[in-house]
Amino acid sequence: MSSLSLASIFAGAAGGYRSLGASVTIRRTLAVVHCHFNKHQNKNALIWYSLSSRKRSFGCESSRQEVAHSTTTSSANGYLDYDRLLPCPAQSRPPRVEHLVVLEEGPVLGYICKALELPPLYVADLIQFGAVHYALVCPQPPPTATPEQIRLFEEFTSPSVLKNRASIKGKTVREAQKTFRINHVDQFLEVGTYLRVYVHPKRFPRCYDIDWQSRIIAVTESYVVLDKPAGTSVGGTTNNIEESCATFATRALGLTAPLKTTHQIDNCAEGCVVLARTNDYCSVFHRKIREKTVKKLYLALAASPMPIGLITHYMRPVNIAPRLVSEEFMQGWQLCQLEILECKKVPWPDARTMEKYSVEDCGWSSKDYAYECKINLLTGRTHQIRAQLAACGAPLVGDSIYMPAVIAEMTNPGLNPFGKHKKLYANEDDESIAIAEWVKQHRKEPNVAIGLQACQISWDDGQHIYKAGSPWWQHRIA
Questions:
Q1: What is the pTM of this model?
Q2: DSSP codes of every residue in 13-76
């Protein structure tokens, strides 16, 4: 795992730091501009920065009754009361990420409990979820760091300090700044270790509602093919590897070795994914993808019709949503190609079907008909089908990121600086402002499902072909 830039730690902070004798946790409410400060004595750790939110109510549902609850903590520290990560919460908690540098050696479980005032069973759950990461040396602070933050970083990374740490010997500072997951509650921490703790991991409650046995398409000695449900993650996220397709499919099949991710599809998409049973086959399948011997067909439920044939765009090389695309070649942008094989007119999903699958109504004006497109995906970029069809004025049903932007462009032609009606800009500053305004027209990631299914996957010239079941929009509620 690559090292974490402290830009995410210090960015936007007006100030706040911790001396070596006392800890000051900066709690930044994401919905507001100002910061809140909470001081309490703690000589075990230096807490660099904390992303959090105001106290909110929190409920749990009994999806996993066999897990006993621990005693909740007091809310005197200004945070929520904490119980267990399981059963799954009925609603997501607001973001809270803690970045710490260890000042007193010891086991990771006890250290986090003391430093962040969290109960042991909750911290054990965080470690099980893969929500705790460490690096031997704290990452480099960004230009926005305060003088005190820079001083503390330099103190902990000075050659005179690092040369006395046996774990650093033989490594460059860059190598020592690489982050890894904490896998055991008793993992020993030495002074100077950097920790990143996702106190509120991203949750996937739909995992507990799925009959996973019924989603298994094929089981072989080398791999498993799964019909992935929408609203789930294939192999987990940075802070949650517990609530994933790989984990739940492993348990459903009673396998002793965990299944491994070979490729991804969006959380809000459903359909065929291949999970490897061994590390060797994981490498084999990755090579097949690189050599372009894996063929993927998709069904996309679009709000407008699409022409049959090849669709080409170029995607901006920025690794965050929304993914912006242009029909014109842009230097450094990534080629995106897909082929529309079929496009047929179908009824727009009725309200009861939309509600059952938690598909969002994104404000499209005409809801009489949708258009089911069969797509041969030629290049596999993140959000590629969603971004390309949206750029053609045919966003996917329920796609709460891209459909609002398409609606805005229809209302105000020329709003998209890379679209057919793009304007000419007097200078780069005007263009940058236009791009920022266009990005703002996009909204949040869908909660569960959109009109997108990986309906078929094949490789080795069709020697292996697997198909998913009917997509959600074909299951109309009686």
A1: 0.81
A2: -------SSSEEEEEEETTSSSEEEEEE--SSEEEEEEEE-------B--S-TTSPPPPPPPST
Domain range summary for the chain, segments of one domain joined by +: 96-200, 205-291, 297-452
Cα–Cα distances (Å) from 412 to 87, 219, 296, 406, 421, in that order, read 46, 51, 35, 10, 10
DSSP-assigned letter for residue 323: P
Query: In whole angstroms, what is the distance from residue 162 CA to residue 266 CA?
Result: 42
Quote the DSSP letter at residue 406.
Answer: H
How far is 469 from 478, CA to CA, in rounded Å?
19
208-233 residue pLDDT tens: 999 999 999 999 999 999 999 999 99
Please check whether the domain covering 205-291 is classified as CATH 3.30.2350.10: yes
Kindly name the residue from 83, 125, 227, 266 that is annotated as catalytic.
Answer: 266
How far, in Å, CA of 444 to CA of 394, rounded? Answer: 18
Is 266 annotated in the active site?
A: yes
419-437: pLDDT as tens digits: 988 888 989 999 999 999 9
**Helices (DSSP H) in 254-378: which residue ranges?**
279-290, 351-356
User: Which is it for strands 369-377 and 334-347: parallel, antiparallel or unpaired?
Assistant: antiparallel
| High-pLDDT (> 90) share of the chain, % | 68
Peptide bond into 120 cis (omega under 30): no
